[in-house]
Amino acid sequence: MPQSSDRKQRTTRPVAPENSALADELRSQLKGKPTRTGFNRSWMHETAGFVGDILRVVIVALLCLCFAFGGFGAGMLLGYASTTKPLSIGDLTSAEESQTSFVYDSENNQIAKLTGSENVDRIYVSYSAIKDTYLDDAIIAIEDERFREHSGIDIKRIGSALLSALANGGSATHGGSTITQQTVKLISGQDEHSTSRKVQEWFSAMTLEQSLTKDEILELYINLAPMGNNFVGVQSAAMNYFGKNASELTLPECALIAGLPKSPSYYNPLRETGRRNAQRRMRIILGKMHELGMITDEEYEDALNTELEFRQRNTDRNTTVNSYFTEYAISEVIGDISQARGISRELASSLVYNRGYHIYTTLEPDTQAILDEAFKQQDLFQSDPDLIADYPEKPNASMVVINNNTGAIAAMQGGYGEKTMNSSWNRAVSTRRNPGSSIKPLLEYAPAFEMGIIAPATIYIDEPKHLDPSHPNSDWPVNYSRSYSGAVTIRTALVNSLNTIAAELWTDVGGDTALWYLKQVGIDRTDEGSYPSQSVGGFTKGMTSLEMAAAYHTFASGGTYTEPYAYTQVLDSEGKVICKSDPMSYRVYSAETCFFIGDILKGVVTNGTPMNFGGQIENADGDHIDTAGKTGTTSDNIDKWFCGFTPYYTAAVWYGYDNRLKQTNVPSCDFSGAVRIWMYCMNRIHEDLPGASFTKPDTVITASVCSSGYYPTDACREAKAKIYTDYFVSGSDLCPKDSNPCPVHVATPTPEPTLPPGPDDPNQQGQGQGQGQGQGQGPGQDPNQPH
After folding, report:
1. Region for residue 617 given its phi and psi (left: phi exceeds 0; alpha: psi -120 to 50; beta: otherwise)
2. CA dihedral defined by 284, 286, 292, 295, rounded to 10 degrees?
3. How far is CA 185 from the centre of its chain?
4. In this structure, what are the phi and psi dihedrals at residue 81, rounded to the nearest 5 degrees?
5. How far apart are the first and last CA of the chain?
6. CA-CA distances (angstroms) from residue 545 to 235, 631, 655, 681?
7. Cα–chain center distance at 691
8. Which of 2, 10, 248, 636 fits a 20 to 30 Å CA distance from 514?
9. Is the pTM value of this prediction over 0.85?
């Protein structure tokens, strides 16, 4: 085996004499196997996994033998190989050094730079930059000692891994996959454990060996290998664990980093137990390097006696903190590139951060500035700070604003206060909470309008109902007010958020049909199956602010759902299009349904539940802008929602507590928290926009209707019944017609006048008797006639 050169010897730093005792003690603690299981699984899981791995290898080995002698095995191998997807590696090794990528808003202003110095979780480094260190030798020694010799797969190594596992109770000291095979998995992101996948992996590995040199394959590996704590690649690991470039690593540091990809969480250097485990593995790797002649006896002993100096964790890194929107847009780009090219997210991320891309987003800077300012105002989040001073955490919120014309995300906020770190929790896209009554327009009212079941003036009875099949004798659901109003219109039921009507309407629509409509607006909960509590917002899996905003945007757009998107296109450093956003867009509701929903929900903002709405939005000149929306509250006031729209924008706000330590109820003084934030932001967003109203389709007409739900007559007016004027679809069966008058209010018949009988009238006596009998029943009154 090749002996180490002088240029590698100089990187070892011996322990000072005064620290030798400490080093000896440390080494004594690192001897032997780890005292804790590396994967925290039971022996049954370990045994089953081990047996499964053996069986897969045996099956593949048998297939290989069959292939060698022809027949069935050859056919299967060829079948597996023919379904292997080609690896997309065209530009993966084309750059000698990392290039800065840029992110722009909708006005082409630069809003972020993606560079190695500012995003230390993944930094591309060329193989030539680390070839003078021990990194390549350390990786090859522990991962694939015949890497320079094989053609992609190493049958001898597979057998060695099996024997190692048998000798170590199921835990092999090394894997059976070559560095090339591991690189294939890092490129494709596929790590399925099956016979077909293993054969396809072998085929891809051999193909990769024909396409790239060994150095190029190794360069891909050192930049894609997971290093724990979301760090990817050796350069990121070197900077975060040792505070230096990969090109400056010493022999023991190289050995430690080379051992991390086997189980990044178990060998996590940022945890005390993980650091001990990592140093044990480092000693194994050093021994292997020594065994293979990669390092001399002196280098080996010096490395064992070298005390590692780990970088002190610094939470105040001098890095640029990207906004919630920027991080979400980058994540979407990475996902789309990964899917389009059939590569792993890790590899797609490496390209985005290191290939000089130009990412053009949909961010509207003025709109985003309003949200940024609002989410730093304590008075919008805490009406009474003293009241919640002893709470385990402070209230939080998220908000998404969508441009109605494009369906694009115009602005996003993922949490209260200043964002202080990258990759922090984005509540706008990651926090899932039940939507409460804000789901009602989406789940039952809009589908019922679309199916022709209801019109805004249709009458339902608000009364105790028994719609819970598991408790058929109990009143369910109950209204928030714990009272009932009798006969009410659909308009009144939605404005006042009556749970009884919502549940009955859900029953009329059909639970499965309701979920189908919900899926059409981007919220797929069909896997849960339908159950009554969904009608009032009780789901197994909650919704995000982004999902709710996109769903409500369907109403604002006139019935067309558009998958929300955060970027328009990505160009490379030469101006070539890497990818373009291509959101799904299709019609879900008719324009009539959307107008009905919008017109009714205007009533929520104008005169609905008292939530400090402040009325409809007005611009700076006092011009009216139609504003519609719906509140939502979950059980025990855990979550507060407000989702709404104008002719220009749609927005959704979730407000509540993260509940990381315990469940915290929103205090009554902050019940309107979501409404406050929504109205504050949307009022300012619309300050300079012209007055506007929702567009009424030509097919929508106004008509009068009696409180009974029928065409009103003079009898209805005489009975002083309520007469409504509301909207209907022209020609629909629900539109009141004079041919179908109100049957409840009927006019009292007027008796015909009776003349006195003349003296010569032969019927005088009979008429007198008849009149007397009639008067006994009352003048002209039929006891069976309604009145």
Report:
1. beta
2. -170
3. 25
4. -65, -35
5. 110
6. 37, 13, 10, 15
7. 34
8. 636
9. no
Read off the tokens for 423.
Answer: 């990759």
Pairing of strands 101-104, 358-361: parallel
The 3-state secondary structure of 198-234, one letter per residue: HHHHHHHHHHHHHHCCHHHHHHHHHHHCECCCCCECH
- Which of 408, 356, 437, 351 has its CA nearest to residue 674? 437
Q: Which of 236, 247, 437, 581 is catalytic?
A: 437
Q: By C-alpha distance, which of 260, 266, 218 is closest to 238?
A: 260
Helix (H) or strand (E) holding 617: strand 617-618
Q: CB-based burial of residue 294 (10 Å sphere; 0-12 exposed, 13-18 middle, 19+ buried)?
A: buried
pLDDT in tens, 225-259: 999 988 889 999 999 999 999 999 999 999 999 99
Contact between 412 and 428 (Cβ < 8 Å)? yes
Q: Which residue has the tokens 């604002």?
A: 556
Contacts of 627 (CB under 8 A, 6+ apart): 602, 605, 616, 617, 644, 645, 646, 682
What backbone phi and psi angles, to 5 degrees, belong to 694? -65, 140
What phi, psi does 255 have (nearest 5°)?
-65, -40
In the structure encoding, which two tokens stand for residue 512, read together? 């499965």
Would you state the structure tokens that stand for residue 645, as one six-digit string? Answer: 């729209």
Q: Yes or no: say if 653 and 357 are a contact pair by the CB < 8 Å rule.
A: no
With contact defined as beta carbons under 8 Å apart, do 195 and 56 qualify? yes
Hey, what are 88's tokens? 């997309």
Category of 161 on φ-ψ map: left (φ > 0), alpha (ψ -120 to 50) or beta: alpha
For residue 3, pLDDT over 60 is answered with no
pLDDT tens digit string along 644-675? 999 999 999 999 999 998 999 999 999 999 99
Cβ atoms of 363 and 410 within 8 Å: the answer is yes
Structural contact between residues 348 and 338, judged by C-beta atoms closer than 8 angstroms: yes
Query: 549 — phi, psi (to 5°)?
Result: -65, -45
CA gap 413, 239 in Å, rounded: 31
Residues 6+ apart with CB under 8 A from 434: 537, 538, 539, 542, 543, 634, 639
**Is 143 a known active-site residue?**
yes
Please tell me the distance from the alpha carbon of residue 128 to that of residue 451, in angstroms, as a whole number.
66
Q: Cβ(727)–Cβ(686) under 8 Å? A: no
- pLDDT for 151 equals 87
Question: What are the tokens at 313?
Answer: 């964790």
Q: How confident is the model at residue 342 (pLDDT cuts 50, 70, 90)?
A: confident
Both tokens of residue 418? 């200043």
Give the CA count within 13 Å in the CB-facing half-sphere of 780.
9
400 neighbors 641 (Cβ within 8 angstroms): no
Cα R_g (the chain), whole angstroms: 36
Q: Which residue has the tokens 């925290």?
A: 40
Q: Tell me how far apart the 2 most distant CA atoms of the chain are, in Å.
A: 151
Task: Please state, for a pLDDT cut of 70, what percent of the chain lies above it.
Answer: 77
Give residue 507's pLDDT: 97
The helix-helix angle for 345-354 and 324-341 (nearest 10°) equals: 120
| Inter-axis angle of helices 545-556 and 591-607, nearest 10 | 110
| Distance, C-alpha 585 to centroid of its chain | 19
| Among 4, 106, 126, 143, the one annotated catalytic | 143
Distances (CA, A) of 772 to 344, 761, 780, 784: 99, 17, 12, 20
Is 213 strand, coil or helix? coil
Q: Which helix (H) or strand (E) holds 546?
A: helix 545-556
Residue corresponding to tokens 């396809």: 200
- Residue 569 is which amino acid? Q
DSSP secondary structure code for residue 332 in this structure: H
What DSSP string describes 515-530? Answer: HHHHHHTT---GGG--
Whole-number Cα distances in Å, 36 to 172, 281, 568, 645: 16, 14, 49, 55
